[in-house]
Design goal:
The protein is α+β, with helices and mostly antiparallel strands and 225 residues long. It has helices at 2-28, 90-105, 120-129, 163-171, 186-189, 203-212, 216-222, and strands at residues 43-44, 51-52, 69-71, 80-81, 87-89, 112-115, 148-152, 177-179, 197-200. A hairpin with a 6-residue loop joins strand 1 (43-44) and strand 2 (51-52). Residues 11-41 have low confidence and may be disordered. The structure holds zinc ion.
Length: 225
């Protein structure tokens, strides 16, 4: 009988650990959380983890606001800010901090975040002021999730010609970020090459995307989302 209760206890413990593990995975998935089923239109369920896919054909629901935005100016940071009011969702901020700390250890410093979270109203203003048609419509910008940032560095040319870009392109995946709009993939993403825009999706999905040379759209499609 004692053995039976021991077994029961072990099973309960395993189930509890699994539940905790799943929650951790979800917390790292970048935007997908339990209790957000009302917003399920924007969350693609995949075998690895759920992920928030945002593009012109998968807009965010009106009034979408991230849960846990961090005002970066007041935080201890391993990178600089182009403006004092830049915010990111906490998971993305913490991963970015780890990433740029490692870059510094590797001798690559001087990353400057130029844009993070945007409200729907801010995205609308950008869209309406946009003359050359490159700004995303309100709801269709990843910046509204707080999970994406634009980065730059002091240089004579474009960001794609900097050591900072070369480092990010090689290592961002290890920290759960993806180069969201890769070169030559505009037919899939709908967005021209943006070497400066990184999206947090968590390490598992970032690795899958990197290993297979996919975009986030292709990952969601192939994972049966
Ligand atoms: Zn961007």
């Amino acid at each position: 009988m004692r053995a039976f209760f021991k077994l029961l206890f072990a099973l309960a413990l395993a189930a509890g650990l699994l539940a905790v593990g799943n929650r951790l995975l979800e917390a790292r998935a970048g935007g997908a959380r339990p209790g957000r089923e009302s917003a399920s239109a924007v969350i693609t369920q995949t075998p690895l983890q759920d992920v928030l896919l945002v593009n012109a054909s998968h807009p965010l629901p009106e009034g979408y606001t991230p849960d846990d935005l961090v005002e970066l100016y007041g935080e201890k940071r391993s990178f600089q800010l182009a403006e004092s009011d830049i915010r990111l969702e906490r998971s993305a901020f913490e991963a970015a901090n780890r990433m740029f700390r490692q870059a510094k250890k590797d001798g690559v410093d001087g990353f400057i975040l130029s844009s993070g979270y945007r409200t729907e109203a801010e995205q609308r203003a950008l869209y309406e002021a946009d003359k050359d048609g490159t700004a995303a419509e309100p709801g269709a910008s990843e910046h509204q999730t707080g999970l994406a940032f634009d980065v730059t560095a002091y240089s004579d040319g474009g960001f794609k010609d900097t050591d900072q870009f070369r480092w990010l392109k090689a290592h961002c995946w290890d920290f759960g970020f993806i180069l969201r709009y890769p070169e030559g993939r505009e037919d899939v993403t709908g967005i021209p090459y943006e070497p400066w825009h990184y999206r947090y999706v968590g390490e598992t999905i970032a690795a899958a995307i990197h290993e297979n040379g996919w975009t986030l759209e292709e990952y969601c499609e192939r994972s049966g989302g």
